[in-house]
Fold this sequence. Notes:
Layout (H helix, E strand, L loop, with lengths): L5 E5 L2 E7 L5 H11 L10 H8 L4 E9 L13 E12 L2 E9 L8 H15 L4 E7 L3 H9 L3 E12 L2 E11 L13
Parallel strand pairs: 5-6
Antiparallel strand pairs: 1-2, 2-3, 3-4, 4-5, 6-8, 7-8
The structure holds coenzyme A.
Keywords: Acyltransferase, Transferase
GO molecular function: acyltransferase activity, transferring groups other than amino-acyl groups
Protein name: Ribosomal-protein-alanine N-acetyltransferase
Amino acid sequence: MRDLLCSIPKERNAIVVIPAGFAHGEVMAAVHGAAFDRPWDAPWSSAAITDLLVSPGVYGFVAQIQVSSKPAEVLQAPEATPVGMILSRMVAQEAEILTIAVTPSARWRGVGAALLEASIKQAKKHGIIEIFLEVSEVNVVAQRLYHGAGFLDCGKRPGYYRHSEGAHDAVVMRRSLDGSDKKTPITCV
Ligand SMILES: CC(C)(COP(=O)(O)OP(=O)(O)OC[C@H]1O[C@@H](n2cnc3c(N)ncnc32)[C@H](O)[C@@H]1OP(=O)(O)O)[C@@H](O)C(=O)NCCC(=O)NCCS
């Protein structure tokens, strides 16, 4: 488990990414709720996240600001403050990023990139050859994060995100983990 941890030193505090377990449902829901704050961004409940965490193939990570040198797994608040979460699912040789969220005050410090990296590393360990995700066409910040992590646009789902104020298309993105992006054109629907 410890080799999955990746830390980013930042001034006096460090941001540490730890594998999520069954007990992290509540913390992940709190982070998700703080991050998805617009009318079309429905937060996920603690029960929904906990259900996912015990579903086959689902795995996640929590990012926390750690102000203690104790092992990340044993820290309690306020020694460690959760600031980010990611949930992914592996099916056969494919994985999907289900959601990623970073609390507004912790953004643009590399937390999202670290969570994504941890998730991709885990997928590679399990022999996954490609990872997919969907992102709203209007979410340019998330799109930049994904492009920076090597994801390429590979499709659109018109009107995928429906909400009281209308609908937005989803951009489908894919990242190959076996280098095939460099050899073959991407086709996905
Ligand atoms: C998308 C999100 C997870 C990014 O988290 P983050 O911790 O701020 O991301 P990082 O600091 O790792 O930044 C990674 C890249 O994202 C982009 N980015 C981050 N914040 C940005 C901003 N405010 N404006 C423009 N680009 C930004 C940059 O390209 C950045 O890489 P760079 O610094 O090398 O240029 C976060 O903004 C968030 O939780 N948003 C709300 C929830 C959401 O939209 N989730 C995605 C749903 S598909």
